[in-house]
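FW: tagging you since you asked about this chain on Friday. Here's the raw sequence from the shared folder, copied in full. Didn't touch anything.
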Amino acid sequence: MPSAVRSTAPTRFAYLGPEGTFAEAALRILVASLGTTTGVHGGGAEGVDRPAAGIGAALDAVRAGECAAALVPLENSVEGSVPATMDGLVDGAPLVVTREVFLEVGFVLAVRPGVALADVHTVASHPHALAQTRGRLAALLPAADVLPTSSTADAARRVAGGEHDAAVCAAIAAERYGLEVLSADLADHPGAVTRFVLVERPGALPAPTGADKTTVTAVVPDRTGALLDLLTEFAVRGISLTRIESRPTRERLGVYSFSIDCEGHVADARVGDALAALHRQSAEVRFLGSYPRADALPGKPVADRVGDTAFAEAQAWLARVREGAAG
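HL: got it, structure written out here
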């Protein structure tokens, strides 16, 4: 896909905006890990970072070539997956995940200067943030109307503009928009973590590190045992799944797309073999990337019979048989 012609410096990363979101905080962590002069894929992509109006807008900016990559939330340890990201990666032109970032999220209740708790009649935030603070909000503001916004920072911006009385947001957003914090540590489950992923257009994959993760989506046919067949392709090769979730394909009831994270890299013989088998078993497969694990943990021990050496030896044996050598 051709890149758009720019008259200004290129945008390096798009992220879920506006300024002051957890995505911006996660992006800071990512940039620090890449190094001050190292960009996407270590290629030194330079330019400004751009907040996007929504997850779809961030992904579309990458597809259009306006940004080198986008950082978007994929799942939360309390509330689970982010449907907008899962659907956005499946719909439209292909994109791949090249890195992941874990961010511990904490929420505050922010208001305009001078507003007291008794003056708060409306509270706004992203649905995931509202879900993670439901208990504390009910205790503090039992009569307040709770309203969803596209992001926690957007809620803070709207409060600063007078649209709502209070926002559930990050401390960085309260500071960014000149708000005061009425209550800190607002989360019902302290220590919640959100997983963000860096998404790019397809290209050279990050090299295997020995502590990698691979993400794919697969549409399973509407037949008995189809999901079991899919899972078996990973199990018989000793590949551990770290996440599997279903999403409707919007075609008809009973047909689902499964989003899967597994340990390992597509360059690993057993992982590549499993994905090829998955392609045979599924109505549709979309490869969404192999990339370093944010926690840098190596995969679970692999039995000799399903290790890469075993796969290489088996392929060499098959080649000799096909050439007419004794088996």
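FW: The first helix runs from residue 22 to 34.
HL: agreed, and The two ends are 48 Å apart (CA to CA).
FW: great, closing this out.
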